[in-house]
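Students often ask why we bother encoding 3D structure as a string. The short answer is that it lets us treat folding as translation between two languages. Here is a chain of 171 residues written in the first language.
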Amino acid sequence: MRSFSLAAAAAVFILVVSVHPSAQRGPAPPQGRGGGGGGARATFPAQQRPPGDAALIARGNGLYGVHCRVCHGVDLRGGDQGGPNLLRSNLVLNDQSGELIAPVVLNGQQGAGGTMPPIRVTAEDIGTIAEYIHSVAATMRGQGNPPPGPSAVLNVLVGDPKAGEAYFNAG
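And here it is in the second language, the structure alphabet:
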């Protein structure tokens, strides 16, 4: 019985080591838009695309700021009005040049988190916004992480520090 449990434990160990991602390091796939960016290995090769035009992306950033930022947030992960995270959206991940995003923008969408109203923009503007969204997704450090940038500095100290210190020392 003891030799069986030892053999079973060895088999489990071999299985875990062979399946663990660090044991399967091969050459990193080429980086492209939607491929993880920032030096990370691409995890969605079918969703990679070449980098977009910088001027088009800058224009898309402005249009996103006017039409989308309130609901979808500055970093595309959801905003104050409850819009969903665009960086993890299957629709965005599978969109190539706005063809999947356009119907949602033009017709609106009813979802679990609420309703997105239709937005009146041109087809060209939708493609530009999509290009911007894809450019941000390409800079993600990993699935669902925000794009790189300056870290937020939080100053959440409230109350009387001396009273807090007295409470801490007493307990």
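Translate back mentally: The chain has seven helices and two strands. Keep this in mind for the problem set.
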